[in-house]
């Protein structure tokens, strides 16, 4: 006879909530979901129109989805590789039909927001099933919708792995009510989101063994199979070389096996090395918005271990923060862990205990909103360009023909990525963060640039077939440092192969074969600096950039 699990035992209640209460809470749930979609669609569109969503990663995935929607191979020139050589994300094929209806990056931004918002539905259903209380179910659904780490995920560009968050929540719900077909459908969707999702599925299968042994075993098998296939696809498309992301863990070994062996041999030393102020802040920001309740459900929180360890062990600082997409496979387990911890405390106490828990959890959710991008006093991501500049820049970029090849600055790429050849400036002239190599990863972090040779760059500019170059001097210069960016731009402005054809407050459009002298006259008149030598050209460009930077920022 199979052992009953805690969720099943907690389903048995003597009283059923009234139909009026059920309908009222369900209506409020959909109001919360609608409010989330409206707020974050508006936020995403604002950031997009103000050039704060960039090539990494909206431009990368927008070009990939657009190519697939046109039945082409998803070789992404923004990144210099097939998108599946970077990450195994088959879910992009499910997104491609959106571009048959709405041919804009906004389509996948809306899809991302709606998917995250709909995660509140299985969260509500799961809580109702466990505690037979629509008000408590509404509380946990709203706690999910108010979770700051998810807000930052939604705000930071676009990433296919966000679809794992609602899918894991759905899988938990269907597991609790033993609905196997939708459960495995949710598991399949998780598997399509990233090459490391198989590890999470495997652990979820071990958890499922307590509910149904056969289902648990199948889930474990699917997780292992998913992991092997995904890593094999990445390796095959990367010329037989493992993913360069292994370099992020190079302090523990040069291969995945060496890293794992280091963890097995020296777990205490490795984990003690992770006790830093930054990681302490990371854990606080993950757990404080849900009253640290997941600590009372370690078996649920353990399911986040693959994603959590991959973040904590990484030498990439961004992975130790909630401001990016790296919490997509942590968020669902934090929220479900909070539910499990709450249920345990509630059952250990009485009605007054439940009342206090509701009060404290509500207060924690509300105070946690200070960490949300909607209310944050600082903005750690790419800052938006002022409205006056963004409107003018939009008019400038519309001058680029749909089929023309273009090299564009980071914030401009998503506005020009529906084409076969769009590059992240200074690619392809001076290759930086290009391809899936260790050097490219280091360049993404601002180090290990290739030697800068002015003569070689001049030859590359002269022989290139790229038709347009789109620049925004007062905007993100990623992947170049600002000084190196200025050097490369001045080399472009001084090369006769290209001429300025449009010049705005913070937008420079160069075209191959355009009148070079006339373009320099436009720049000189705009910034009030005479251009008669390379030194004069450098001063003119910096003066132009300074003028662009003096435009007041929009209030957030």
What is this entry, summarized?
This protein is mainly alpha-helical. The chain has two domains: about 20-370, no CATH class; about 385-550, no CATH class.
Keywords:
mainly alpha, two-stranded antiparallel ribbon, disordered N terminus, 556 residues, 2 domains, 5-stranded mixed β-sheet, 57% helix
Structural description of this entry:
- The chain is mainly alpha-helical.
- It folds into two domains: 18-371, no CATH class; 387-549, no CATH class.
- Helix content is 57%, strand content 4%.
- The chain is built from 27 helices and seven strands.
- The protein has helices at residues 6-9, 19-49, 55-69, 83-86, 91-95, 98-101, 105-118, 120-131, 134-145, 148-155, 164-176, 180-191, 197-208, 213-237, 256-265, 267-272, 277-287, 298-301, 305-312, 331-348, 351-368, 387-397, 438-444, 454-463, 482-494, 516-527, 534-549, and strands at residues 75-76, 81-82, 406-408, 422-424, 468-471, 498-503, 508-512.
- Helix 11 packs antiparallel against helix 12.
- The chain is globular, with a radius of gyration of 26 Å.
- Residues 1-14 have low confidence and may be disordered.
Strand-helix topology:
Layout: H1 6-9, H2 19-49, H3 55-69, E1 75-76, E2 81-82, H4 83-86, H5 91-95, H6 98-101, H7 105-118, H8 120-131, H9 134-145, H10 148-155, H11 164-176, H12 180-191, H13 197-208, H14 213-237, H15 256-265, H16 267-272, H17 277-287, H18 298-301, H19 305-312, H20 331-348, H21 351-368, H22 387-397, E3 406-408, E4 422-424, H23 438-444, H24 454-463, E5 468-471, H25 482-494, E6 498-503, E7 508-512, H26 516-527, H27 534-549
Parallel strand pairs: 3-4, 3-5
Antiparallel strand pairs: 1-2, 5-7, 6-7
Helix pairs in contact: 2-7, 2-9, 8-9, 8-11, 8-20, 11-12, 11-20, 12-14, 13-14, 25-27, 26-27
């Amino acid at each position: 006879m199979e052992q009953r699990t805690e969720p099943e035992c907690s389903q048995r209640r003597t009283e059923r909530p009234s139909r009026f209460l059920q309908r009222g809470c369900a209506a409020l749930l959909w109001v919360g979901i609608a409010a989330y979609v409206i707020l974050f669609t508006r936020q995403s569109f604002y950031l997009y129109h103000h050039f704060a969503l960039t090539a990494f990663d909206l431009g990368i995935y927008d070009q990939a989805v657009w190519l697939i929607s046109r039945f082409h191979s998803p070789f992404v020139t923004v990144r210099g590789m097939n998108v599946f050589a970077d990450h195994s994300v088959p879910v992009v094929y499910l997104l491609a039909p959106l571009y048959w209806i709405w041919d804009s990056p906004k389509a996948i931004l809306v899809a991302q927001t709606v998917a995250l918002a709909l995660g509140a539905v299985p969260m509500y259903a799961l809580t109702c099933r466990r505690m037979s209380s629509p008000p408590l179910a509404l509380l946990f659904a709203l706690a999910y919708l108010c979770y700051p780490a998810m807000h930052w995920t939604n705000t930071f560009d676009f990433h296919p792995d966000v679809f794992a968050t609602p899918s894991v929540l759905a899988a938990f719900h269907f597991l609790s009510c033993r609905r196997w077909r939708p459960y495995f459908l949710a598991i399949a969707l998780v598997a399509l989101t990233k090459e490391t999702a198989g590890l999470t599925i495997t652990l979820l299968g071990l958890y499922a063994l307590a509910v149904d042994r056969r289902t648990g075993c199948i889930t474990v098998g699917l997780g292992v199979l998913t992991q092997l296939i995904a890593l094999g696809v990445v390796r095959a498309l990367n010329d037989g070389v493992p993913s360069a992301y292994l370099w992020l863990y190079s302090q523990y070994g040069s291969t995945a096996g060496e890293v794992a062996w280091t963890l097995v041999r020296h777990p205490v030393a490795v984990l003690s090395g992770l006790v830093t102020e930054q990681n302490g802040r990371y854990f606080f920001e993950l757990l404080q918005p849900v009253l640290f309740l997941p600590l009372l459900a370690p078996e649920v929180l353990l399911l986040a271990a693959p994603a959590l360890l991959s973040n904590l062990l990484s030498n990439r600082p961004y992975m130790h923060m909630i401001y990016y997409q790296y919490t997509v496979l942590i968020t669902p387990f934090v929220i479900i862990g909070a539910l499990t911890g709450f249920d345990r405390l509630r059952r250990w106490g009485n009605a007054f205990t439940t009342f206090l828990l509701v009060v404290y959890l509500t207060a924690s959710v509300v105070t946690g909103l200070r960490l949300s991008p909607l209310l944050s006093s600082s903005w750690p991501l790419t800052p938006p360009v002022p409205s006056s500049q963004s409107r003018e820049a939009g008019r400038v970029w519309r001058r680029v023909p749909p089929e023309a090849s273009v090299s564009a600055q980071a914030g401009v790429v998503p506005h020009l990525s529906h084409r076969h050849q769009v590059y992240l400036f200074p690619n392809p002239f001076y290759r930086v963060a290009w391809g899936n190599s260790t050097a490219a990863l280091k360049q993404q972090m601002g180090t290990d640039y290739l030697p800068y040779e002015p003569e070689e760059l001049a030859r590359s500019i002269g022989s290139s077939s790229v038709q347009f170059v789109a620049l925004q001097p007062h905007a993100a210069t990623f992947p170049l440092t600002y000084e190196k960016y200025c050097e490369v731009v001045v080399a472009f402005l001084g090369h006769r192969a290209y001429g300025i054809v449009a010049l705005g407050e913070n937008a420079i459009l160069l075209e191959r074969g355009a009148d070079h002298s006339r373009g320099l006259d436009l720049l000189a008149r705009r910034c009030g600096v005479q251009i008669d030598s390379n030194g004069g050209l450098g001063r003119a460009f910096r003066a132009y950039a300074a003028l662009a930077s003096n435009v007041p920022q929009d209030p957030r």
